[in-house]
Design brief:
Elements lengths: L23 H14 L4 H20 L8 H12 L3 H11 L2 H10 L4 H12 L8 H19 L20 E9 L2 E8 L5 E4 L17 E2 L7 E5 L5 E7 L8 H7 L1 H9 L3 E2 L8
Parallel strand pairs: 1-6, 6-7
Antiparallel strand pairs: 1-2, 2-3, 4-5, 5-6
Helix pairs in contact: 1-2, 1-8, 2-4, 2-7, 3-6, 3-7, 4-5, 5-7, 6-7
Length: 279
C-alpha cells in the first residue's frame, strides 16, 4: 500500500518555525506535574519521568559527527552505543511496569548479536516479529539517539507527508499551534521527535479529507487533548491543542491521556503508532 498523497498547505508555510523541543528536564517536570492531577495515568507518568532521566544520559552521550541522513547515521550510532544498552536495560528493570520490567531484566544478559539485531529492526521500522516489550525497550534506547542526530536536519521542501520527513517514522501525536489566521497543525515523530507541518483536515493514515469522515472527540476536563479519528480507515491520533494550554509538552500530555486510548479502542479505532508505554 502506497503512502497517501496530500495537497500543499494553503495558509501556512510548508516548513514553519516551531518552538525548540522541550528539554528532558522540562519533559520530566511536566510528567510529574500531570501525575499529581491524573490518578489514572500516574503510574505511567512516573515511569516516563524516570525513563526520560536515563534517556537524557544517552542523548548527552551521542556525539556522532558522521555525515548522512538520520537513518544511515543512526545505524552507525547504534553500533557505537550498543555497549550502553545492558546498563540502560538494567535501569529500566528497576522501575518499569511489570511486563517491561521482567523483559528488561532478561535483556541485560542477552547476546550482543541479538541486541544489535533488535535495535536495528526498531531503527529500520522492521520490528513486527519482536515481542512488544522488546520493541518498547529498544525504542526507548534508540529514541534519544535519533533525536540528537535529527536536531540539525531541516525538513525538506515538498508536499506535506504523513511520515517523518527526516527519519520516515510515523507520528506519535499531532499539535495545534497559533499560526496566521488560525491554528496550524503539525505532527511529531515517534522516533526522532521532529515536528513538521501538516494539513488541518486530513487523516495521516489514509489521506481521507472529508470533514464528515473525520470525527473529533474531546473529553470533559482535558479540553487541550483530543482524539482525531478517521471513519474510513479507523485509525486515530491524539492532538495536543497548544492554543488552549501553552504549557503542554506534547509527547508527555499525549502519554497522560490514557483514558482517551481506552475509549478509542472500545469504539473500534486503532492508534496510528504506539507511544513508549505501549498505548
Amino acid at each position: 500500500m502506497s503512502d497517501p498523497q496530500f495537497p500543499l498547505l494553503n495558509d501556512q508555510p510548508l516548513t514553519p518555525e516551531f518552538p525548540s523541543r522541550p528539554t528532558y528536564t522540562r519533559r520530566i517536570q511536566r510528567a510529574k506535574e500531570l501525575a499529581e492531577c491524573n490518578p489514572a495515568s500516574r503510574e505511567i507518568l512516573n515511569y516516563y519521568a524516570r525513563l526520560a532521566f536515563h534517556q537524557e544520559s544517552i542523548y548527552e552521550s551521542c556525539l556522532s559527527c558522521a555525515e548522512g541522513n538520520v537513518a544511515e547515521v543512526l545505524a552507525m550510532t547504534i553500533d557505537v552505543a550498543l555497549p550502553e544498552f545492558p546498563e540502560f536495560a538494567r535501569s529500566v528493570a528497576q522501575f518499569a511496569p511489570a511486563p517491561l520490567r521482567q523483559r528488561a531484566a532478561a535483556l541485560v544478559s542477552a547476546d550482543f548479536a541479538e541486541l544489535h539485531e533488535l535495535l536495528l529492526a526498531i531503527a529500520n521500522r522492521e520490528s513486527t516479529d519482536w515481542p512488544d516489550e522488546d520493541r518498547f525497550i529498544a525504542l526507548a534506547f534508540i529514541q534519544p539517539l535519533a533525536e540528537r542526530l535529527g536536531e540539525q536536519e531541516l525538513v525538506p521542501p515538498g508536499k506535506p507527508q504523513a511520515t517523518c520527513p527526516v527519519c520516515a517514522s510515523e507520528p506519535v501525536c499531532a499539535v495545534l499551534r497559533d499560526r496566521g489566521h488560525g491554528a496550524g497543525r503539525s505532527l511529531i515523530c515517534s522516533l526522532c521527535m521532529q515536528e513538521w507541518g501538516f494539513l488541518r483536515v486530513a487523516c495521516p493514515a489514509c489521506g481521507e479529507d472529508r470533514f464528515e469522515s473525520l470525527p473529533v472527540f474531546t473529553p470533559d476536563g482535558a479540553t487541550h487533548v483530543r482524539i482525531d479519528a478517521c471513519d474510513t480507515c479507523h485509525h486515530y491520533l491524539k492532538t495536543i491543542d497548544m492554543t488552549k494550554d501553552g504549557l503542554a509538552v506534547p509527547v508527555v500530555d499525549e502519554l497522560a491521556a490514557i483514558p482517551l486510548d481506552l475509549w478509542a479502542a472500545e469504539k473500534g479505532y486503532k492508534k496510528l503508532t504506539l507511544n513508549l508505554a505501549g498505548l
